[in-house]
Structures are given as C-alpha cells and as structure tokens.
Amino acid sequence: MKSSFRNRLGGLLILPAMLCLLWSNVQAQQSLTLDKALSIAETNSPSIQQQLLNLTRYQKNLEAQRAALKSKFSLSVSPVDYTNTRRFDSRFSEWYTNETFSSNATFRVEQPILVTDGTISLINRFGWQSSTAEFSGQAPTTNETFTNNLYLNYTQPLFTYNRLKLQLKELELSFENANISYAMQRLNMERSVTQFFYSVYMAQMNLNIAREELANTQKSYEIIKNKVDAGLAASEELYQAELNLATANSTLQNNQVNFENAKDQLKMYLGMDLFEDILVYADVEAVAVPVDLDKAIQNGLTSRMELRQREIEVESNQFDMIRTKALNEFAGSMNLAYGIIGDDNRIGNMFDQPTRNPQVQLSFNIPIFDWGERKARIEAQEATIKSAEINLDEQRKQIIIDIREVYRNLQNQLNQIEIAKQSERNAQLTYEINLERYENGDLTGMDLSLYQNQLSSRKLAYAQALLNYKLELLNLKIQTLYDFEKKQPILPSELYKINQ
Predict the structure, then answer these.
(1) What are residue 332's DSSP bridge partners?
(2) Parallel, antiparallel, or unpaired: how do β-strands 278-281 and 30-33 relate?
(3) What is the pTM of this model?
(4) Position 163 pLDDT exceeds 80
(5) Which single residue of 48, 162, 437, 468 could bond 443 by disulfide (Cβ 3.0 to 4.6 Å)?
(6) What are the structural domain ranges in the chain?
C-alpha cells in the first residue's frame, strides 16, 4: 500500500517536470518567416559583416586622406644636446677643444594645396646655445646665444601631374566601389537567404509528405493484415505491405535527417545559434506578375551596379596611365622661402638687428634616353584600358542576356505551375480510386505503393514549381533593380551603407 502511494507521489512529482521540459522545448523553437530571416541576416550574416569591415576600411582611408589636406601643426623639442669634441682648425692649423650645450624647439604649420599640389609652410625654430672653445696656450672662450629663425616656405612641383588630386580621387572611387560591393552583397544575401529558406521549406514539405505517406501505408497495412487474418488474401500481400511500411518508415527518417541538415545550413548562414530550433513558414502561392521586357532591360542598363564597377575600373586604369606617363618625364620643382633670423645673448634683443634670408631654388629632371621603357609601359597600359572598356561593353550585353533569360524562365514557370497543379490533382484522384480497388482486393500492395509514390512526387513537384517562380521573380528584381510585384524601382543608393 505504501509502495503504491510512493509510486503515485513520484508520478505526480515527475509530471510537472515533464510539462516544464516540454514547455521549454516549445519556447526554444523559433518561428521563422522569410522577412524575419532576411532581417536576421542583415545583422548577423558573416558575409555581410565582412563586407561592412571592408567598407569601413575604405571609408576610414578616405577620411584620413581628407584630414591630411587640412593644416598640420607640429612641435619638435630637443631639450638637451651636449657635445664635447676635439676638432682641427684648418685656418690656424691647430687643434682645439669645443664643448657645446644647446636646447631648441621647432614649431611647424604645413598646409597642402589641393589645387596646385604644392605645400606652404610656416616654420619657427627657437633655441639657446652655449659653446666653449679652448685653444692650446689660450684662455677658453665662451659664447651664449639665443636664436630664432622664422620663415615662410612654399614648395611647388612643376610640369607633372597633381598627385594630391589623383590620390584623393582614387580613394573616393575605392570607397564608392566598396559601397557597390556591399550593396551587391546585400542583394546576393537576399538571394542566398531565400534559397536556404526555401530549401528548409522543401525539406519540411518532404517530411510532411513522408508522414502522410507513412500514415497511408500504415492504413493499407492494417487493411491487408485484417484480410490475411480473415483468410481473404494471400500471405504474400501481407509481406509486401510490411515491406512498404518499412520503406515508408525509412523515407520518413531520411527526410527528417535532410530537414535537420537544411535547418543547420540556414542557421549558419543567418548567423543564428546552431542549437536553437526553428520552424519556417512561407507563403508560396504564386500570383502571375506582369513583366514588361523592354522596361526590365532599360532599368537594368540604367541601374545595375556592375556597370558602375566596370566604369570605375576604366577610370582607375586611366589613373595608372597618368602615373605611367610620368615615368622618366621632364619635371621640375620650385622652392621659395622668406624669413628673418635673429640672435643675441639676451632673448629680448634677438630681433634688434635681424637678418633677412630669402631663398629661391629651381630644379629640373631632364630625361635623355631610357631605351624605350616609357613607350613600352604606356603601350601596355593602353592595352589594359582597352581591355577594361571591352569588359564594360560585354557587361552591358550580359545584363541584357540575363534579363531575357529570367523573363523566359518566368513565362515557362507559370506553365509549369499549371501542369504541376493538374498533375497533383490527377495523382490524388488516381490514388483514391486505386485505394478503393486495393480495399476491394482488385489491386496488389505493390501497385498501390507505386500510386502512393506518384502522389508524393506530384505534390513535391507542385511545391517546387511554386518556389521556382518565387525565386525567378527575386532573380528578376536583382537583375533589373526593379520590383515588378510592387511596381517600383530599387535605387542603388538605397542599398549603400553610407546613405543608411
């Protein structure tokens, strides 16, 4: 009696624990729609994160270059500089000892000039020096002096290209190209997420159909078992029914494995927790979307970002041509400076008698003979530019071909959907008729299994046809940057991270 009571009490204690466990499993399973999957991928997808890091790198390089065009302020200080050396005075042909102690600082303001590629600088050097010289047989002499050198300097390259402008333009193009790559990755991500999502959906459909097939096979098995037990059917029919039941169980297990594998692939691409269970929900009803082929092609040629990437490639090659032409070029440099120098042993009297120190320096680099190096490099770069221009033209042609192909696939998929829908309806009716024949003993279990497999394959074919149409619509949106379902264009700038 006591043992029975303990068992009941134990059962009552275990029941809440089991309920809590079941509830936690239900809670852990996340319902996932396509829109939600895309939203998760925007934040967690490793491919998107890598593109964002690449975009950040180019953005910061551009910001650094623009900051470098502003005035730079710098201060260098040498608080202690002490030397004690033995030197030879060639004027008097004798050796002497020189001890020097100095301290100085330099303040510099530099301003690059983007228009001319020159640099203007304001420099001030201030210092103090104590120098003691001791000659043989003479008393040492000491000189202590404050000095200040203030001057304005301008450096200007001559007869060459503007390196500052070229470098800035290259960084701007690189940043634009990184934005385009990010935008294209977002579109590719939408395509990949959709494909992974629908793969899970199809695996889920396979699993559901396998369960229905198992239920139907179980029903058929029970029918034939009752007949065999009643002596109304041969034992061979029961053996076939058992084989069909085992096959249906095996198919169910295989589809369960495929379903779990497909979910793992989707979770990995989305950057989700791999131990979190998901269940996908999708609206796969296909509604025919009218598509204007001419409008699709025109919008693709106007908006496709790959064309801009090819244009950037051509511009970058032209910049390389500018550098190539600068090899062994006739070029010059001009340096102008003007300032005043003051020195005295008293700091307040340094500029009582200042010294003006104008400087003018003009230099030229004159190439004489380079054995045809410059000419050959220019011709090689011209070939590179021509190749980039051909790539641009071929990209336009490829866009037209791709859009036409997607358009034809869309029209074909609509026909395939109608065929698959009718085939599923016919397979369902055929199975129901033959199930009745099987129950009446007019059909073998092997024959019924064939009709069951036919019905399952027709259901999957219909679901796949619906998904194919959805994927082709997405492909058309990516190829044309126009959403024909919503009847609105997708502006490339809307995909750029910099404009978000």
Answers:
(1) 158, 364
(2) parallel
(3) 0.73
(4) yes
(5) 437
(6) 30-57+169-315+386-499, 73-113+118-160+330-366
